[in-house]
TrEMBL record, chain A:
Reaction it catalyzes: [PQQ precursor protein] + S-adenosyl-L-methionine = E-Y cross-linked-[PQQ precursor protein] + 5'-deoxyadenosine + L-methionine + H(+)
Cofactor note: Binds 1 [4Fe-4S] cluster. The cluster is coordinated with 3 cysteines and an exchangeable S-adenosyl-L-methionine.
UniProt pathway: Cofactor biosynthesis; pyrroloquinoline quinone biosynthesis
Official protein name in the record: PqqA peptide cyclase
Radical SAM core domain boundaries: 4-219
Assigned protein family: Belongs to the radical SAM superfamily. PqqE family.
Known role: Catalyzes the cross-linking of a glutamate residue and a tyrosine residue in the PqqA protein as part of the biosynthesis of pyrroloquinoline quinone (PQQ).
Phylogenetic lineage: Bacteria, Bacillati, Actinomycetota, Actinomycetes, Kitasatosporales
GO molecular function terms listed in the Swiss-Prot or TrEMBL record: 4 iron, 4 sulfur cluster binding; cyclase activity; iron ion binding; oxidoreductase activity; S-adenosyl-L-methionine binding
Residue positions binding [4Fe-4S] cluster: 18, 22, 25
From TrEMBL, chain B:
Keyword DNA repair: no
A single MF term (Gene Ontology): quinone binding
Transmembrane segments: none
Source taxon at top rank: Bacteria
Entries under Pfam families matching the protein: PqqD (PF05402)
Pathway: Cofactor biosynthesis; pyrroloquinoline quinone biosynthesis
Oligomer status and interactors: Monomer. Interacts with PqqE.
Organism: Streptomyces monashensis
Protein name in the entry: Pyrroloquinoline quinone biosynthesis protein PqqD
Amino acid sequence: MTAAAPPWALLAELTHACPLRCGYCSNPVELAGRSAELSTGQWSEVFRQAGDLGVVHTHLSGGEPLLRRDLPDLVAAAGGAGLYTQLVTSGVGLGERRLAALTGAGLRSVQLSVQHADPVAAERIAGARSFAAKKRAARLVRAAGLPLGLNVVLHHGNLDALDDLVRLALDWGADRIELANTQYHGWAARNRAALLPTPDQTERARTRVARWRERLGDALELVWVAADLVDTTAKPCMGGWGAVSLTVAPDGTVLPCPAAGALPGLEPPNVKDRELAWIWRESKAFNAFRGEAWMPEPCRGCALRTVDHGGCRCQAHALTGDPARTDPACRHAPDHPLVHALVHGPAAHRPAYAYREGGP
Amino acid sequence: MTPAPLSPAVPWRPVLARGVLLRRDRVRGADLLLLPERVVVLDGGAGEVLRLCDGVRDVDAVVAELTARHPRAPVAAEVPWFLDRLRKEGWLG
């Protein structure tokens, strides 16, 4: 067993409930119900254990974390455990009083999701009215003096609006915009045909990002999360399995990556049964793909293995049925023809988005 | 993050910017600067310097305090440069 360095970050998925129904949602198809969610006390204990383990950052996410009425208590508990707290939100429900309660509890920063720069297109992607609420949330966060980041999941329906998205980030006063190409996990896998961009689209957007970086310098931080399928390069998923961060799902399941719950045979542990320290260091789930011993060829003999850590286990599973195979996104992978066919196949019919129906 | 005044008549009293947190990491035995999507592991005495940046002391006062604590260290030469670098990063205001 590889000795594990302590984790830096905790993704706390406080609830799966969400007022939005984004087609690209990477949460599982089967969501955890509200009654299965950890209590305020259980989450506080998770934060305490995470701080003791070496975690310094927590992203309070979901679903929509604002749907947890105890959110200010959770922010205070995380802060009390020494964690830097960032709220990851759709902005729906982030009014003046709610934000004041959160900043009063010690919230440090906010990351706001944006689907498109055009309100109609944005709400078509989100499957819900939300654009005006987002704009208001951004204004309130700036007025409160908190750092504001925007997160845009990129796909066929918004890659061509890259310039407008950057202008929106400037207009809304963001410090940072993360432009993250869709990862086809959970619900998003159902919408792959609707979401998958053409290679030309991706290339144009990448070029535009480089131009904006030159033009803006330090005024706005632009983060481009690579389109691994189009790039034919495996992404360094999570900075390596069980290497940097852990995810706690709404029901207390602990995962090395938010999508890993779909992997067969992982037997993910739960904070209700075990201490986080044991889970991080000893559990089968966190050691399954840690380090390099698990790697097949061509990863095992490849110089890139220390950079991409063999790519994404969830993608290998989704496309080949076996999470231990080389990520098919990689051009050297034996299964890469699968990805090539997806990306370069005959221009497929673009179906409408499948939206989630009902809540968890 | 508001840039500090450049006029020499108003001495700069450095303080950590909103959203930047200085923390002792007892697990790793290091001082850290925590930012929204980022952790900066501070070397050597950088944490001690930043703990003096309280928005009350000006740079001269920070230098004087550190010089008193470490009379043989090149404080006057290095600390103003270090603080200026962090201001350019937007971490000090």
